[in-house]
Amino acid sequence: MISAEQIREHVLHARPDAGLELISNLCPSCQDSLLVAAEDAVEVARLLRDDPELRLDYCSNVTGVDWPERPVRTPPGSAPAGQRMRAEVAARPGCFEVVYHLFSMSLKHGPVVLRMRTENRSDRVRLPSLTPIWHSAEFQEREVFDLYGIRFDGHPDLRRLLMWEEFEGHPMRKDYLPPAEDDVREPFAAARNRMVQ
Amino acid sequence: MRLVEPEGFGANGVGGGDGDERLLELSMGPQHPSTHGVFRMNVVLDGETVVRLQPVFGYLHRNHEKIAESQSYLASIPYTDRLDYFCSLSNNWAYVRAVETLAGIPVPERAEYIRVILAELTRLQNHTVFLGFLLGDMGGWGTALMYAFRQREEILDLFEALTGSRMMCNYMRFGGCRCELPSGWMEQARAVVAGYPAFLDEMEQLLVENEILVARTQGVGVVSAEKAVNAGLTGPILRAAGVDYDIRKVDRYGIYDRFSYRVPLGEHGDTYDRMMIRLLEMRESLKILQQAMADLPEGPILHSDVQVRNLCPPEGEAYCRVEAPKGELGFYLISDNTARPYRYRIRPPSLINLTLLEEMSLGMKIADVMVILGSIDIVLGEVDR
């Protein structure tokens, strides 16, 4: 089992200028993750997949996480053990995160957790798509686009996956408000009216 | 249904230019006896041959993840039953294991054994019904399915005796299981397991050398090992392509390292291999069941120190997966040390196993598409969540 820190060093050895940051996870699962800069993500992903020592050929899980802007509750450093993550989260401005869980089917190790962050939650929500590296990300990135509104550059077919095309908004965002009850009763009213006309 | 001009669909050299070269765009589903639920495919046909296929999802979407993020950890366990509603116990296990990993909750040994027994019984009945439905998709509607249902019902009787429900079992809890085995349950379970090989022999005899079945499945919907890995296929359809990857062996979760069993692998990655893999896996599951039932220890079934209600795991995150009958079922949880998960994500094997559906179907006949879809084994409760 290779640790996230070892993978980080391995990648930095091959690509010294890649933006790669270790995010530690202090809960009992001990699954640390690597935060990769958006502009380096495709290159780093290809390296992770093709490197003979890593061979992370299988991208299992892709998902989004919403981190809205939050006031700082505990100053970083003074948080008790196990609470450091909240201090980090609270101290930074809001963003969306995309999390990839990678495994190696040929070498049978993993998970390696790869994360990317958008610059904010409003107008700068583009991230590079990793579908060209791992085909398994295709539907899952579509789902993240659908439910979180993150746009993936380089995705071959970026459409909504679960909600219908006419749907407005992104329901998994923490600040999403469900529509009024009248609209819920007739979710396809707009589409039907258009057909009648 | 509508006719479309061939431009853009690459129908080179088809037809004689008198109008017959037009392609047919067909919307299959969401109401279709062989789409296994409300699943739709937009298929473009050149005669009977598939030239393009686009799956359409979402008809059963209820945003399970959003609902789970608004309630306690415990309250989501019954909801996981409704993901892959054939395999509620596997879903329970995947979820409680994720919470146990997140919060560091130990599980008593007896509960681990019961979980293995229930997970393998679930695999048995899932694969049994799979064979029945697949035969139905090939046109043998009814007979094979009834044989399969009759056999499955014996296992569902066991589930009902133990949990109170045939399919929505809601049985596992953080740190163990909900209730003790009722008296006589183990004897009944042993009898079911002992009677299973005879059913498998019968089914195998019906299937393996049947000329029609061989013609309908061999060489149909072939997937290479390399593409299967890259597209994230998991479970029996990955192993049918020859990739040795079974999470029970790789992660050795629970107590699977104590049992002796083999992982069957296919050679061709076609529909026939995907079907036979299930038959072979059932025989291996029976081996695990016999060993687990023989070794089942006495003891508590729920860890006594665990706060099942209002559980507040420490801050952090965990991704945890099990080998569900349909593939890798994973749960990804982020806790912010409150009683509700900050992020609750399901990695659904049924959805991701459909990634290569178009590639498997291209160049095949429209009737083969149903067989290929059937051989992937999806449940829409899990695809759409």
How would you characterize the overall build of this protein?
The complex is a heterodimer of chains A (197) and B (385). Chain A has a single domain (4-164), classed as NADH:ubiquinone oxidoreductase Nqo5 subunit (Beta Polymerase, domain 2, 2-Layer Sandwich), CATH 3.30.460. Helices cover 27% and strands 22% of the residues of chain A. Chain A is built from six helices and seven strands, in the order H-E-E-H-E-H-E-E-E-H-E-H-H. Chain A has helices at residues 4-14, 41-50, 84-91, 137-148, 181-185, 189-196; strands spanning 20-23, 33-36, 58-67, 95-104, 109-117, 126-128, 151-153. Chain B has one domain (64-384): Orthogonal Bundle (Cytochrome-c3 Hydrogenase, chain B). Chain B has helices at residues 64-69, 77-81, 88-103, 109-137, 143-163, 185-207, 211-217, 225-230, 236-240, 247-250, 271-295, 349-352, 357-361, 366-376, 380-384; strands at residues 2-4, 23-28, 40-46, 49-56, 172-173, 176-177, 316-324, 327-335, 343-347. In chain B, the strands form three sheets. Chain B has a four-stranded antiparallel beta sheet with strand order 1-2-3-4. In chain B, strands 7-8-9 form a three-stranded antiparallel beta sheet. Chain B has 385 residues and is an alpha+beta fold. Classes of the chains: A alpha/beta (197), B alpha+beta (385).
The first-level CATH class of chain A is given as Alpha Beta
CATH architecture level-2 label of chain B: Orthogonal Bundle
Integer-rounded radius of gyration of chain A: 19 Å
Q: Write the CATH fold name of chain B.
A: Cytochrome-c3 Hydrogenase, chain B
State the helicity of chain B in percent bands: 40-55%
CATH superfamily of chain B: Cytochrome-c3 Hydrogenase, chain B
Identify the overall geometry of chain B. globular
Radius of gyration of chain B: 22 Å
Number of helices of chain B: 15
Shape of chain A: elongated
Strand content of chain B: 5-15%
| DSSP summary, beta strand count of chain A | 7
Strand arrangement, largest sheet of chain B? Answer: 1-2-3-4
The figure for the number of domains of chain A is 1
- Order of helices and strands of chain B, N to C? EEEEHHHHHEEHHHHHHEEEHHHH
Q: How far is the N terminus from the C terminus of chain A?
A: 62 Å
Oligomer: heterodimer
**CATH 2nd-level architecture of chain A:** 2-Layer Sandwich
Order of helices and strands of chain A: HEEHEHEEEHEHH
Major sheet of chain B: 4 strands, antiparallel
Assigned CATH class of chain B: Mainly Alpha
